[in-house]
Amino acid sequence: MKGRTIYPGKVEGEAMVSKEPIGFYGGIDIKTGIVIEKGHELEGRCVKDKVLVFPYGKGSTVGSYVIYGLKKNGVAPQAIINKETETIVATGAILAAIPCVDGIDIEEIKDGDLVEINAGEREAEIIIK
Amino acid sequence: MHLTQEQEKMLDGEYGSIVSRMMRLLVRLGDVYGAEKMVSIASVQVAGVSYKSIGDPGLEFLQDVAAEAKVRVLTFLNPAGMDLEDWRGMGIDEEFAQKQLAIIEAFKKMGIVISATCTPYLAGNLPRYRQHIAWSESSAVSFANSVIGARTNREGGPSALAAAITGYTPYYGLHLDENRQPNVVVEVKVELKNSTDFAAMGYFVGREVKKGIPYYRGIRDADVDDLKELGAAMAASGAVALYHVEGITPEAKEVVAEGIEKIEFGEEELREVYEKLNTGNEPDVIIFGCPHASLNEIIKISRLVEGRKARKPFWICTSRAVKEIAERMELDKKIEEAGGKIVADTCMVVSPIEKMFSTTAVNSAKAAHYLPGFCKQKVVFRSMEDLLR
After folding, report:
1. Interface test with B, best of A28, A60, A87, A88 (most B CBs within 10 A)
2. Confidence tier at B76 by pLDDT (50, 70, 90)
3. What is the dihedral of CA B353, B355, B358, B360, to 10 degrees?
4. B29 and B166 share one domain
5. Are B324 and B294 in contact (CB under 8 A)?
6. Based on the structure, what is the number of domains in chain B?
7. Which residue, A18, A53, B45, B125, has fewest beta-carbon neighbours within 10 Å?
8. Among candidate residues B121, B144, B177, the one where a domain is terminated
9. What mean pLDDT comes out for the span B136-146?
10. What's the pLDDT at B389?
11. Residue B61 and residue A65: Cβ atoms within 8 Å?
């Protein structure tokens, strides 16, 4: 699949897929990377080293700083794939230097799939292995 | 997007990794919003200062930036979560205070002016007409665009900081002439008696026009405090970043206000807003200064309370700069004798007041809009004169 690069990079990892949007502030624990939002479909799971797939971000603009904090604490996802990256996630991914791609039909990616991401300066390619 | 050689170098990391990430953030946002190039900016207003709002993640980020980068243009700061000097007097706990002071230290290290105010235009950061700036703080954005005629989009905390560190912002949105045209006329059919009436109107119009650009017709006069309240309210109930007032704001005569949608604001609409925003009866505290009080407002309050004793405590939130002058005029003494105090560097929305009060009286529609959610307060919304009577 082809998409748009929000932040470039080349990585391969296991997909963790959420059909719901993710709010990073108050939604993911910054120290452990565990999803803590009550009733969220990923509640209790850890995003560390995953390729995190979700439609778009939601909630507080402080979410950008949480993404940055996850990276600093070594519990960030390896990469982010969105249907549409809004400014909270875009800002966070860029500041944290986490490869991030949007414009992807995320329904095609299943939880647990091995995914390769090739994100160039502008265009990105996603391969499900 | 076209970048100059210098901007390319910033992006490529020649100025360090923080500058590179900041430039990348601006380029990416510019691509998303269709900017063709970057534009130099004259000043920045940075939001996201209170520890209550940004927490430990924000603090860590700012410390990392401060270790490597400095701002390139005049940069002012939004209010903090407490009075930076008299935080003990506000009842702020030690842990919160230490975190807040660490945030301030990081900003200071970047070369940012610790103005800690949402009204930079009253405290020494005054852009000129048509000048490009990159401001956050929705009420200040509205004032700068509308009353001064400077040009800024509604920046978030990180994008404003990125503009401060690189000296550029992507050239799109309200930086361009064609995007500053009004799309709705507001016919004002009621006499607005004070700045709280202006705030109430702003609350109504912001809710109606959302992200639109209103053009007001029928306002005979408005002072800077009236316009400050009007803009703040529209940016809170809606996302209005620019408005025009016929005969009053500088771009009103340059834009076309014909052939667009019209709405009316009359007696009935005014009454409806007061009814909606009043959710409490007996306030524990009265707080003025959202956005931060001007010196003129503090003079008015000191006259209203002189020689009297208030039944409830009252606070006036303002910038340190304005507070200093008020103190020199001994206005603070008159206010303290009446049971009030002037609080600098902070405001009711970003400080942890829910630990102290449950019903707050305000003369600001912006405050009345945010207090129930952010601070779990019931609200009494009345004019300054009514509240002090």
Report:
1. A87
2. very high
3. -10
4. yes
5. no
6. 3
7. A18
8. B177
9. 95
10. 87
11. yes
For residues B191 and B267, what is the distance between their CA atoms, to the nearest angstrom? 8
Q: How far A84 CA sits from the closest chain B CA (Å)?
A: 11
Write the DSSP assignment of B227-270 as a string of letters. HHHHHHHHHHHS-----EETTTSTTTTTS--SSSEEEEE-HHHH
CATH number for position A77: 3.50.30.10
Distance from CA of B69 to the nearest CA of A (A): 14
Residue B205 CA, chain-centre distance (Å), reads 18
One domain for residues B164 and B39? yes
Instruction: Tell me the whole-structure pTM to 2 decimals.
Output: 0.90
A9: region left, alpha or beta (phi > 0 left; psi from -120 to 50 alpha)? left
Last residue of a domain, one of B142, B177, B212: B177
Q: What is the dihedral of CA B94, B97, B98, B100, to 10 degrees?
A: 160
The range of the structural domain enclosing residue A19 comes to 2-128
Three-state secondary-structure class, residue B389: coil
Q: Report yes or no: B340 at the A interface, CB cutoff 8 Å.
A: no
Digit-coded pLDDT (tens) for B190-213: 999 999 999 999 999 999 998 899
A60 catalytic per annotation = yes
Q: Which residue in A26, A41, A59, A60 is the catalytic one?
A: A60
Segments forming the whole domain that contains residue B122: 5-177
Residue B31 has pLDDT above 90, yes or no: no
**Is residue B98 located within the same domain as residue B29?**
yes
3-state DSSP helix/strand/coil % of chain A, to nearest 5: 20, 35, 50
Closest CA of chain B from A16, distance in Å: 23
Same domain? For B221 and B302 the reply is no
Other Cβ atoms within 10 Å of A59 Cβ, number: 16
For chain A, the domain total comes to 1
Kindly state whether residues B40 and B122 are assigned to the same domain. yes
State the burial class of residue A56 (Cβ atoms within 10 Å of its Cβ: 0-12, 13-18, 19+).
middle
CA distance linking residue B42 with residue B29, whole number of Å: 20
Complex ipTM > 0.85: no
Cβ neighbour number for residue A121 with a 10 Å cutoff: 8
Residue B346 belongs to a domain with what CATH number?
A: 3.30.499.10
Using the Cβ of B260 and the Cβ atoms of chain A, whether some distance falls under 8 Å is answered with no
B372 in contact with A, Cβ within 8 Å:
no
Whole-angstrom Cα distance, residue B101 to residue B290?
Answer: 22
| B61 contact A CB<8A | yes
Q: What does the block give as tokens for B185?
A: 């006329």
Model confidence pLDDT, tens digit, residues B303-328: 999 999 999 999 999 999 999 999 99
Provide the token pair at B329: 């005029």
Which residues, other chains included, contact B312 with Cβ-Cβ below 8 Å and sequence gap of 6+? B283, B284, B285, B286, B339, B361
